[in-house]
Design a protein that fits this description.
six-stranded antiparallel β-barrel, 150 residues, elongated
Length: 150
């Protein structure tokens, strides 16, 4: 009698990306915002809760990219969400939004990038935001990336 499976193919040419994108807190899932780098508001944004603005100054904008969605929380605990914005551009540590806001963001408010579109609601971890693309690209060993050349 002949076996239906004569050999199991080995996937030596497959690129292992798991460690580059998986959460260290909950296996098999993308990291949540608390596992990713964040920064804080360095200069208060907003003055009276009525006058709108479209820029914030953060302590370190190097973790952000244009078109990335940001969630801004009251500091220092970072539990209460104050605003959600999408980045239009970055100059130094000044982040310009695509829209505008009147919410007063005090110094020390926590600014977190979302790992994917729809991070909060509706939950969809399908379309990665730039912070995840950077994390995946830098987390895959060069030996794995060389497989693209074959």
């Amino acid at each position: 009698m002949m076996s239906a499976i004569t050999s199991i193919p080995l996937f030596d040419d497959a690129i292992d990306t798991y460690a580059a994108w998986a959460s260290t807190e909950k296996g098999g899932a993308w990291p949540g915002m608390l596992e990713l780098p964040n920064t804080t508001i360095a200069v208060q944004a907003g003055t009276d809760g009525v006058t709108t603005y479209n820029q914030i100054t953060v302590a370190d904008a190097s973790i952000f990219r244009p078109e990335q969605q940001l969630h801004i929380y009251a500091g220092p605990e970072g539990v209460v969400r104050l605003s959600t914005q999408t980045i239009a551009g970055i100059s130094g540590n000044v982040v310009t939004y695509m829209g505008s806001s009147a919410v007063i963001l005090p110094v020390g408010s926590i600014v977190r990038p979302a790992p994917s579109v729809g991070e909060l609601s509706p939950l969809s971890l399908v379309h990665p935001q730039p912070i995840m693309i950077d994390r995946i690209a830098s987390g895959i060993p060069q030996s794995e990336k060389l497989k693209f050349n074959s």
